[in-house]
Amino acid sequence: MSLLRVAGGGSIRALPLLGIFRVRRRARAQPARGLFLVNVKVGRGSSNKLSSGLAGAYVSAYVTAADKDAAQRLAITKLTAKGFEFLATQGPVARIELDAWPLHVAQSWPEFIDELPRQHELAAGLEKDMVFFGPFVGYERSA
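Given the sequence above, the corresponding C-alpha cells read:
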C-alpha cells in the first residue's frame, strides 16, 4: 500500500478498491419446482382404458417438476407407461401456482373436484416428481 501526503503534512494509507466498481454478476437462481399443466393428445396404443370406438384422447396432465421441459417429459413417460401412444402436446406447457390450484380445478373440472388432489397434498408432494391426470376426453377415428 502506498502513502499519500495530505495537506497539513500528514499522510494516510491508500486502500485498494478491490473492484467495488465492477458489476457483480448475480448467480441465476434455479427456478423453484412447480406444478405444470401439459395438455396431451394420445392414441389408443396398447391401452385398453378407452372404449373400442375411440382412436385416442386428449388429457390434461398435471406434473410437479423442476421446469417445463421436465414436466413435459414426465407426462409423456407416464402416459406411454400406461400403454398410450404419445401423439402431440397441445399448446404451451403452463405453470400453475399452488395458490391458484383450487380456482383452476373449480373452473376447469368442477365435476371432478373430489377426484383431483387438494392444494395441501400438492404442496406436500412438490419436492418429488408427481404426475396425475384430468379426465380423458376421447375422440373417434376420422372417416
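DSSP finds three helices and seven strands in the chain. Try to locate this feature in the C-alpha cell string yourself.
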